[in-house]
Write a structure and sequence with these properties.
Number of helices: 10
Helix content: 10-25%
CATH superfamily of the largest domain: Prolyl oligopeptidase, N-terminal domain
Number of strands: 35
Strand content: 25-35%
Largest sheet: 8 strands, mixed
InterPro entries: 6-blade_b-propeller_TolB-like, AB_hydrolase_fold, Pept_S9A_N, Peptidase_S9_cat, Peptidase_S9A
GO molecular function: serine-type endopeptidase activity
GO biological process, one term: proteolysis
Protein name: S9 family peptidase
Keywords: Hydrolase, Protease, Serine protease, Signal
Distance between the termini: 56 Å
Shape: globular
Length: 650
């Protein structure tokens, strides 16, 4: 069973920063239809009245014990809560009703209607695991004396709940076994400081990962029947990334990933009895998913193909792919099996359609759509498919990017533009649905979501290009993206801004700081302003994550001069173009003081600066009312400082 990927406390292995949920789609260059007449225009509130549906995490049980419901997390109420969606169709039923804190659904119980959920307070990322009892009350499963907890999974016989929980004096979580009837817990494994990845269904084996660098990691196995001392199973020379996917349902093998044989990560099968390693799955892109149905009859595999997911479900007995009927064009994701393997739940999404939940019969392939996420007041045809473009960065490096061309943009009616920088470091601008981007495009802005060097998904060489060189060539890739936009005859070359969140917010700030004339304005969404402070704060991270971050960004003990040199705060006097800063007051990753200090410094320049702080948010805005307020602020700022001015041609 793999650890829940929906955890509020999850973060990139190489970073303490989350990626801004930016999206894009398609292939090659803008289609000729892009210059069609403008479609209907929608408000920010209409875009965010679209509902976000997420199936219960892969470590849990998505189908109820009687097969009547699938478990989802949704923001239908404006705050994320747990919902039961009827398999036969009908309105989702709210199982939790928080009006303040995000609650994420993780799993049904195997024999009754209880569920497991996780929640923090105001985005502080100190998440705790709860049981939602049959009467609707919530019971905290966090062991006594522990400060955080998360679901790792269920034992194969469903007799135990495995959770990860952290003590106040420890950075890494330990594993506890919880009795689902009495809720009594016992310590199962004390973590020596690694990342816990999975437990075998029989409860004997724990798979762990240790980061030696941002692109260098190892997999260890701990045999709980033999003392539990972790044993290295991926010895290697040089920099190789390893990761854990899943144990096989019979607990005979571990499926793990490695990029040792080429640019991309493939999967391998490690025999737990013999230690033999065999090639499992390879392709022209990184493998992103490899897991099984409860009995092992079906296998799910996925690749990250040019920033979109290509997923397949295969019958292991016959080797034949499962064909699902009557589903819309888009990416299939979050595949979850019913316990008896008669049905499978999954999502389908695209750059013009948010994820909707479907259920299919595995024998016939017949599919039923359970949700319609897009606001019914909006037409999907009014939204814009992204296309993948590529341009040359310095040194001849090819930079992929996802382009949204607004309808009605022509040489005679050029559009203003926005370059979007993703989070990370090491994130990726994906070709998924983004209300943030679609709203701006719907209001006439061309958006180019850049995958600068250092982004994941394009091979290990590309990924490593910005190590200990952040704010340098990767920043110039973003600036070159702005020039690519200006070179299009349908983009106004004097009306291009830069925008990003988290590490992307840093890049937006760095563009205005170190290349002051490169953009007309910038939007910084909880971006790092002071790397010295941020990396010193990272000392509190678990050793494995801290090691990876310092390998990528540099150790503050030895690289303080460079960190100061690339930090916008210490050079804020250079900022002369308008700036909008967005910040969550409870952000534990980019502290509010960083934005406070930068805003004060920019104001001292006499430069226009706007500052929006959400008192009930952390690193990412989860409440719908706040997301709407933020989106309205983005558009208002861009309209004022980018669209409106009649600046001279460049």
């Amino acid at each position: 069973m793999t650890r829940s990927q929906a955890s509020l406390s999850a973060c990139l292995a190489s970073s303490i920063l989350l990626a801004l949920a930016v999206t894009p789609a398609a292939v090659s260059a803008p289609a000729s239809g892009a210059s069609a007449a403008r479609s209907a225009t929608y408000s920010a509130s209409q875009f965010f009245e679209t509902i976000d549906y997420r199936l219960a995490g892969g470590s849990g049980l998505a189908f109820s014990h009687d097969g009547r419901f699938v478990l989802t997390t949704s923001d239908r109420s404006g705050v994320y809560n747990a919902y039961a969606v009827p398999v036969q169709g009908g309105e989702p039923i709210a199982l939790t009703t928080s009006t303040t804190n995000t609650t994420q659904a993780l799993s049904w119980f195997p024999k009754d209607g209880r569920i497991l959920v996780i929640s923090d307070k105001g985005g502080d990322e100190r998440a705790r695991l709860y049981v939602r009892e049959l009467d609707g009350s919530l019971r905290d499963l966090t062991p006594e004396g522990r400060i955080t907890s998360d679901l790792l999974g269920w034992s194969g016989d469903r007799s135990k709940i495995w959770i990860a929980s952290t003590a106040p004096d420890r950075r890494a979580p330990d594993i506890f076994a919880v009795d689902p009837a009495t809720y009594e817990s016992r310590l199962l494994f004390q973590n020596p400081g690694m990342l816990i990845e999975a437990i075998s269904p029989d409860g004997r084996w724990v798979a762990l990962r240790r980061q030696s660098g941002s692109a260098d990691s190892d997999v260890y196995l701990a045999d709980l029947s033999g003392g539990g001392k972790p044993r290295l199973i991926t010895p290697h020379v040089g920099m190789v990334r390893h990761q854990v996917y899943d144990f096989t349902p019979d607990s005979s093998a571990l499926i793990f990933g490695s990029d040792a044989q080429g640019e991309f990560g493939w999967t391998y099968r490690y025999n737990l009895a013999s230690g033999a390693v065999a090639e499992d799955l390879k392709g022209d892109w990184d493998v992103t998913a490899a897991h099984f149905s409860p009995s092992g009859r079906y296998r799910v595999s996925a690749f990250n193909a040019d920033a979109r997911t290509e997923m397949s479900v295969t019958d292991v007995k016959t080797g034949a792919p499962i064909t699902l009927k009557d589903i819309p064009i888009g990416d299939i994701g979050a595949v979850r099996f019913r316990a008896d393997e008669k049905q499978v739940a999954f999502t389908v999404s695209s750059s013009t359609s948010p994820a909707d939940v479907f259920v299919a019969d595995l024998k016939s392939g017949k599919t039923r759509r359970l949700t319609r996420a897009l606001n019914p007041a909006m037409k999907e045809s009014d939204l814009v498919e992204a296309v993948v473009i590529r341009y040359q960065g310095e040194g001849g490096v090819t930079i992929p990017a996802n382009l949204y061309r607004p309808k009605g943009a022509t040489a005679s009616a050029p559009a203003p533009g926005v370059v979007m920088a993703h989070g990370g470091p090491g994130g990726q601008a994906r070709r998924d649905y983004s209300a943030i981007i679609q709203h701006l495009v719907n209001h006439g802005y061309a958006v180019l979501a850049v995958n600068n060097r250092g982004s994941s998904g394009y091979g290990k060489t590309f990924f490593r290009m910005d190590n200990r060189a952040h704010g340098e060539a990767d920043l110039r890739d973003v600036i070159a993206g702005g020039q690519w936009l200006r070179d299009q005859d349908w983009v106004a070359d004097n009306k291009v801004a830069v925008m990003g969140g988290s590490y992307g917010g840093y890049l937006a700030l760095a563009a205005l700081t170190f290349h002051p004339q490169s953009f007309e304005a910038a939007i910084d969404i909880f971006g790092v302003t002071n790397w010295t402070r941020t990396l010193n704060e990272a000392a509190r991270l678990p050793e494995s994550r801290r090691t990876a971050l310092y390998d990528e960004m540099g150790d503050p003990a030895t690289d303080a001069e460079r960190h100061r040199r690339i930090s916008p705060l210490f050079h804020a006097s250079n900022i002369v173009k308008p700036l909008l800063v967005m910040q969550g007051a409870n952000d534990p990753r980019v502290l509010k003081i960083e934005s406070d200090e930068l805003v004060a410094a920019v104001k001292a320049n006499g430069t226009p600066v706007e500052y929006v702080v959400f008192p009930d948010e952390g690193h990412g805005f989860r409440r719908r009312e706040n997301r709407i307020k933020a989106q309205e602020a983005y558009l208002r700022f861009l309209d004022r400082y980018v669209r409106s001015p009649s600046a001279p041609k460049r």
